[in-house]
Design brief:
By secondary structure, the chain is mostly beta strands. The chain is 0% helix and 43% strand. It has one domain. The chain starts with a strand and ends with a strand.
Amino acid sequence: MKKITTILSVLALSSLAFGAHVASNQQLVDSPIGMTTKGDSVGAGVPFEVRVNVIPKGPELGIFDENGNLYDTIVFDHGTKLAGKLPRSVVKKTVILQRADGYAFSADKNGQVGSTTYTGKFAVDSTLYDESKNTLTLEKLSSSTDTDNTVKTMKTELNFIKGDRNVSATDNQLRTEFNSVILAGTEAVGGQYVGTGTIQATLTVK
C-alpha cells in the first residue's frame, strides 16, 4: 500500500520562574506598606503590544489554533510560581492541522473534494519527552545563585489524543487539545525551567 506522510512541526515550550533573581518586564517597585497619607498612590503596570501577521492562502498544511491563527511557536507558559511544593498547574492549547486555504485535505487547488482518505495522528518529538509516561522533563537554566553544576529538573505531563484516527475525504481538520500539567506537590527551587520539542501532525494516505 502506497504511503505518503506529511509532517508539520512547531516548537513546544514550558517555562516556570521562581524568585526575585529571575528577570521580568514588570519592575516590582511600589508597595502599599507605609501608605497612610490621603492622596498617596502606588500601583503596577506591564508593557503590551498588538500585532497581526497576514500570509497568503494555499493548499499547504499548517498547524493552527482554534481561532484560525497559524502557530509560530506553541508556548505552554505556567507563569511565575513560588519555590517549594507547587500547586497543580494546567495550560491548555488547541492544536489543529489544516490546509491554509481551509479546503478538505483531499481537495484540489480549486476546492473540489477528491476521494482520498487518510489516517491522521499527533506526536511529540523531543529528547526530553518520555512517551511511555507522557512526561516532558524541564531543565532549570543556570543562574548566578547556583552553588553547583547539578542540573535541576522538573516534569510536566503532556496529554493529547494519541494514535491513528480515520480522516475522510471531506475532512478539513485534524485536531486535538494539548495539556501541559504540572502535578501538585512537584518540588522546585528558584529559577526558570524550560523544556522544548516538536509537536508533529501526520496525514498518511490509506
